[in-house]
Amino acid sequence: MADITADNVAEAPARHGTIGVVIPGYGHPQFLSEAIISACTQDIDQPVQVVVVDDGCRFPETGKVVANLMERFPGVLYYLRQENTRLPGARNAGVRFLMSIVSDLDAIFFLDADNRLSPYSLRRYREVLGDDPLVGWAYPDISFMGLTWGEEGFDTRETAPQYSKLKHLLGNISEAGSLVRIDMFRQGVFFDETMRFGFEDWDFWLTALGAGYVGRRVQHAGFLYRRRPESMLADSRRQEDELISKMRRKHAALFTPRHVMRLEHSEAPYFALLFADSDDVILTSDPLGEGHYLARNEFYALVRRWHHDRREFFFPASIVVLTQAQWQQLQAQPQYIRWLFWALKELPGTIHRWLFESRPRPYFEGLPADTPDMVNSILHVTAEGLADLLRDAAADEGAALPEFVPAVFQTPEALLSGGSKEAYASLFDCLKALVAEALPQRARVRHAGRRFAGPSALACRNVLVNDICAEEQRKPFPTATNSSRTLVAVDQDTLADSAKCGHFAELLKRLRDTTDSILLVIERGTKRDLESLHPDLWMPLIEDLVMLDRVPSGLEYRIYLGRRIYSLFTLKSKEDGAILARTVDRVITIGAAAFLEVLGDARQHGVKGYVFFDSIFADAGPLDSEDSAKILAFEHAEELVVCDNDAMSGALSAQGFPPAKFVKPQEFFDMLESQ
């Protein structure tokens, strides 16, 4: 071993600066001294500066307690008194005071007057905070004192063993008693002083998330939280719905469907692709996106952990068992993959075998239970189905797999072909191995004084993701991408007309210059084979294809300005359309497509809807046109109508359509290119 000299010793890391502690004081003077002393006597090699912000406390004892302790901790403890601003204003005042007097401020800890720290706490917090500038704060497991569940006067609550943005959107997983990097405040992240009635800390962390920061958990933080029967938190629970609604409006960008789906893909992927002929497992929420790779034994460990703690840990909601060759075949026709995986999500039941057939009209449906096995199939098991398999195996090691409910996905060229009986049998063997290897051997042991009390992992998916990204009792479309996406909706009869389809293909080519990908929704009424819709013209220009059913126009209508407005979508198709619209940046209907009925829902989620209504797509003249009547009726949901026919736009304007909403095709494309 070489001698250690000044030349070969790595340069020591730079010494961190001063840690600030802000203690708001309003009431509780009987506890305040404990909080101050615990902050001023920290065992840490960094300087500590503590400020008590007397927020107009009505008890004179508050000021007396601080005055007495300032003599004990000169140059460390400071006292501010101000008119009452409630907790957010007091914390901000303390932060600004410390920033004004401490030149090397490194981080700030928030300690309420009735809580306290252990001697090692700030040192432990600072170790965990680390030096990654994107880690904005370190939050604790919370040890409760006062009113507790613990036999010995203490119990500990774990809110998020691993930090999760997704969980933080559903509930507050970071106690205000956290250490915050000073750069967060320098970037303008402060407490919202209008949050005067609770949840001000949750709102603060959401602001930090929006600024690009994340948190990191501190185990054994030594943070002691005094639980009392009545507190500001208890009061906030009485106004919970109103406060949460306010935060969602304020932090709307965090709650958009596309952002939530990206978080799900990053932190809680919906699908696990389990390969029968490979050690790889892919976790993903988007089958066209980049997945997370695990080794088979790592996935087994994930199953065991989830089986013990389903509330605490994320786990894929669907397991797809297939071979590498089958996965490559599916990827060879990428336009159908997301539609297929959406069908997997939506099919009722917990355990399925999906068959793939060649049929001229793309479609999927459930099949009778007695449908024979086909070698060109994959297996699909939901998390609930896997739990049932594990339970049955624990009760009977020789238990056979149950019957798999059949379903079919059909396309003009079957997504899977050329399979063998051996490859198909290997799927069942792979699933049996999963159950055998992942079967929990013993229950997980948790200390009696510790409990998980954070947002449920399952609720994150069922309450947060589904509520934001799908319709009631429905599942989101499986896409999670940062790229720009445009949904184009067109009636199949338009594509069946060769002249219109050629014009449509040119339109798609121009759109491709303004967006990264196109989701094409084809509305079908009468049965038409896909080949009759000239797919060679438009299929290479799109990323996703979904077909939605529409009904004959005479079945249902409403009257608007004396003219019939036909409802063309089935109820399911309207829900499908609303879900699809939440996954894109804009929606464009070709003429008065049925998708017009969805634009209002899309607008509520920040997705603008446009109607391309130039002469070739108009069905008749401006006064007797069913299309023009429908465009007029849905004007409130339409951002712009692209129209090159002055007579049409003039007639609609005369009936009340705002003239400013009409735009020429070239102006429309210029606008898209500039966005």
UniProtKB/TrEMBL annotation:
Query: Which Pfam families does the entry link to?
Result: Glycos_transf_2 (PF00535)
Domain annotation Glycosyltransferase 2-like: ranges: 21-136
Gene3D superfamilies the record matches: Spore Coat Polysaccharide Biosynthesis Protein SpsA, Chain A
Q: Does the keyword Kinase apply?
A: no
Query: What is a single molecular function from GO for this protein?
Result: glycosyltransferase activity
Give the enzyme class.
transferase
Q: Where are the transmembrane segments?
A: none
Tell me yes or no: is Protein biosynthesis among this UniProt entry's keywords: no
**Superkingdom of this entry's organism?**
Bacteria
EC number(s)?
2.4.-.-
Keywords, A to Z, come to: Glycosyltransferase, Transferase
- This chain belongs to the protein called Glycosyltransferase family A protein
Organism for this UniProt entry: Kordiimonas lipolytica
Starting at the broadest rank, the lineage of the source organism is: Bacteria, Pseudomonadati, Pseudomonadota, Alphaproteobacteria, Kordiimonadales
